[in-house]
Specification:
The complex is a heterodimer of chains A (about 270) and B (about 250).
Chain A: H1 15-37, H2 44-49, H3 51-84, H4 90-102, H5 105-116, H6 123-130, H7 138-163, H8 166-174, H9 179-207, H10 211-217, H11 227-237, H12 239-264
Chain B: H1 2-22, E1 24-31, H2 35-48, E2 52-59, H3 61-69, E3 76-79, H4 82-90, E4 94-111, E5 131-134, H5 139-150, E6 159-161, H6 164-172, E7 178-182, H7 183-188, E8 193-196, E9 205-213, H8 219-230, H9 232-240
Parallel strand pairs in B: 1-2, 1-3, 5-6, 5-7
Antiparallel strand pairs in B: 3-9, 4-7, 4-8, 4-9
Helix pairs in contact in B: 2-9, 3-4
The chains are: A mainly alpha (about 270), B alpha/beta (about 250).
C-alpha cells in the first residue's frame, strides 16, 4: 500500500519472531472474535435503533469531542511549558501529568468527587457561588474523561517539542518572524503529526472511558450514560443490547483510528 | 536436566496433594447486600465444620448469575431476588429446588442530618433534588421502581448506580440527597446514612433465595451450608443484620 518502505531490501523475517508476533496479534483478535460470535446479527438493526443505544452514542461522541477540545486548549500550552521552560518541581509536574495513565480510573473518579463534588473542597464553594453542581451532569462526564484522557496529548506533544530542532524556530525569528508567527508557521506544522496522534489517542481514550465517569458523573440515560456505561448496565440485564453497543464502540473506534492512521501517522 | 524436571513434577504433585489435604474449599456466590451477614455466617459455619474453608464471591446478583450460567465452578448461590435464581434454575445449574432464606425491604436513605429535608417518596418527584436508584436489572433497582409505582410517584432520578453499595457511597458522601436502598444497608452504614420508612401501602419486599449447584465439588458440604443458613443459628445472624426470616 505504502511506497515508503518498498525501497528497503526485505528478507524473510525469522520464524520465531513471526510466531511470537502472531501470538501478540491473537491477544487483540480473539476477544473481538468472541464478541462477533455472540452478536445477534438478525436482531442487530432493531437493537441499534433502540433509544438506549442512540442516546449513548450521541452522548459519547459529544463528550469525547468536548474532552479533546478542552485537552487541546489547555494541554498543548502545558506541554509547551514542560518542554521549553525550566521551573522548580518540573519532575513532579511530569509525574502528576502522567498519573491518570496508571491510576485506576475509579480512583480518579472518586478523587474528582472529593474535589469537585457538592461537598468537595472546590465543589462546595463553587455550587454555593454559582449553583453549578458538576456530578450527575454532562459536564461531569466531560471533566472526568478529560482528566483520564489528556495525558496522552500532553505527553505526545511534549515529546515532539523536545525532539524538535530549535534552530528552525531560531532561524525564523532571526528572519523577523514574530513569536506568534513562529509558533503558527514553524512549530505547530513541524509537530503536526504528533499533535494529531495525541489528539486522536486522547479522543479514543475519552470515548472508551468508564470508571471515572460512572464514579464521578453517575449513570443516567441521555445525560451521563455514555456507551461504555450503557454496555456495563446492559450486560446485567439485556446481553443482546450490550453486544450491539459493544459493536458500535468497536466500529466507531476502529474506523477513526484506521482512517486517521492512514492520513497522518505514516510520518511516524 | 532430567532430574531437574522430575523435581519440578514432584513439587507440583505435592502442591496439589498438600492443598487437597489441607481441607475442602466451598465457593459461595452471594449478593452484595449479604456482605456483612455472610461474613459472619462463614465464620460460624467453618467453626461447625472444621476442615472446610468457605470462600465468598460477592457481587450483584445479576453478575453472579452470569458467572454461573457461563460455567463458573460455584458450589452455592445466594441471590437477592427470585428472577436471577430462576434464570440459574432454567439453565439447569441448580441441584434440587432453591429455598427462601431471608426477606429484605427498601428504605429511603438520606445523608446523616438529612440536609435536603426529605420526608417521603413524594420527594422523588422533585426535580431540584439529586436522587439515585440502583440500575434496572439489579434487584434493588427493580424493587425501587415497584415501590415508586405503588406510591404513584413519577421519579426525577439523577443516576442509576450499578449496585446498592455504589448508591450508598454517593448518599453517604452527601452527593445525593436521597436514594432507595435496602434497610440492611442503612443498618450496615452505622449512622453514616439515615433511613426513612416507606409506608405499608407502597412498600415491597424481595425474597433472598439460596441453592446448592449441580457443579458443587462436594454436594454434601454445599447442602450443609444451605441447611446452616436456614437453621436457627444462621437466621439469628441474618436477623442481626436487619433481614427478616421468611
Amino acid at each position: 500500500m505504502s511506497s515508503a518502505n518498498s525501497g528497503r531490501g526485505r528478507s524473510r523475517p525469522p520464524a520465531l519472531l513471526v510466531i511470537l508476533g502472531c501470538v501478540g496479534l491473537a491477544w487483540f483478535v480473539v476477544p473481538l472474535v468472541g464478541l462477533l460470535a455472540r452478536t445477534p446479527w438478525a436482531d442487530l438493526p432493531r437493537l441499534l435503533g433502540g433509544e438506549v443505544v442512540t442516546d449513548a452514542l450521541r452522548l459519547s461522541l459529544l463528550t469525547s469531542l468536548a474532552a479533546t477540545v478542552i485537552a487541546a486548549m489547555v494541554g498543548v500550552p502545558l506541554a509547551w511549558l514542560m518542554a521549553r521552560t525550566e521551573f522548580p518541581g518540573q519532575a513532579i509536574v511530569r509525574g502528576l501529568v502522567t498519573l491518570p495513565l496508571v491510576l485506576p480510573p475509579v480512583v480518579g473518579g472518586a478523587a474528582l468527587l472529593f474535589a469537585l463534588g457538592r461537598r468537595g473542597v472546590v465543589g462546595e464553594p463553587l455550587s454555593r457561588a454559582t449553583g453549578l453542581v458538576l456530578p450527575f451532569s454532562t459536564w461531569g462526564v466531560v471533566i472526568a474523561t478529560t482528566f483520564v484522557a489528556m495525558p496522552f496529548l500532553v505527553i505526545t506533544v511534549e515529546g515532539a517539542l523536545r525532539n524538535l530542532d530549535e534552530r528552525y524556530e531560531g532561524a525564523a525569528a532571526t528572519l523577523g518572524a514574530s513569536r506568534a508567527t513562529v509558533l503558527r508557521r514553524v512549530t505547530l506544522p513541524m509537530i503536526a503529526p504528533s499533535l494529531v496522534a495525541g489528539l486522536v489517542l486522547t479522543w479514543a481514550r475519552a470515548f472508551g472511558e468508564f470508571g471515572a465517569t460512572i464514579t464521578f458523573a453517575g449513570n443516567l440515560q441521555g445525560r451521563t450514560q455514555t456507551l461504555p456505561l450503557a454496555v456495563f448496565v446492559a450486560l446485567e440485564s439485556d446481553r443482546d443490547t450490550a453486544v450491539a453497543l459493544s459493536l458500535v464502540m468497536v466500529a466507531v473506534s476502529l474506523a477513526v483510528l484506521i482512517a486517521l492512521r492512514e492520513r497522518w501517522w505514516k510520518a511516524l | 536436566m532430567h532430574r531437574y524436571v522430575m523435581t519440578l513434577v514432584a513439587m507440583a504433585l505435592c502442591l496439589g496433594a498438600c492443598a487437597a489435604s489441607a481441607g475442602e474449599e466451598l465457593l459461595v456466590s452471594a449478593a452484595a447486600s449479604l456482605t456483612g451477614a455472610f461474613g459472619e455466617v462463614e465464620v460460624a459455619f467453618e467453626t461447625a465444620h472444621p476442615g472446610v474453608e468457605v470462600l465468598l464471591n460477592i457481587a450483584g446478583s445479576s453478575t453472579l448469575r452470569q458467572q454461573i450460567v457461563e460455567g463458573a465452578p460455584v458450589d452455592v448461590f445466594a441471590s437477592a431476588d427470585r428472577s436471577n435464581m430462576d434464570q440459574v434454575v432454567a439453565a439447569g445449574e441448580v441441584d434440587g429446588a432453591p429455598r427462601i432464606f431471608a426477606v429484605n425491604h427498601l428504605q429511603i436513605a438520606v445523608p446523616a442530618g438529612n440536609p435536603a429535608g426529605v420526608t417521603g417518596l413524594e420527594d422523588f418527584a422533585d426535580e431540584d433534588l439529586l436522587l439515585g436508584l440502583c440500575a434496572a436489572g439489579v434487584p434493588c433497582g427493580d424493587l425501587a421502581l415497584t415501590v415508586l409505582g405503588n406510591a404513584g410517584v413519577t421519579p426525577a432520578i439523577d443516576t442509576r448506580e450499578p449496585d446498592v453499595r455504589a448508591l450508598l457511597t454517593k448518599i453517604q458522601s452527601g452527593e445525593l440527597d436521597a436514594g432507595l436502598t435496602y434497610v440492611t444497608d442503612v443498618i450496615a452504614s452505622d449512622g453514616a446514612v439515615h433511613g426513612i420508612d416507606i409506608p405499608d401501602g407502597a412498600t415491597a419486599t424481595t425474597n433472598y433465595q439460596i441453592a446448592s449447584l449441580v457443579d458443587a465439588s462436594d454436594p454434601a458440604t454445599a447442602a450443609a451450608f444451605v441447611a446452616f443458613v436456614l437453621s436457627a443459628e444462621g437466621q439469628a445472624i441474618l436477623n442481626r443484620y436487619g433481614f427478616t426470616s421468611p
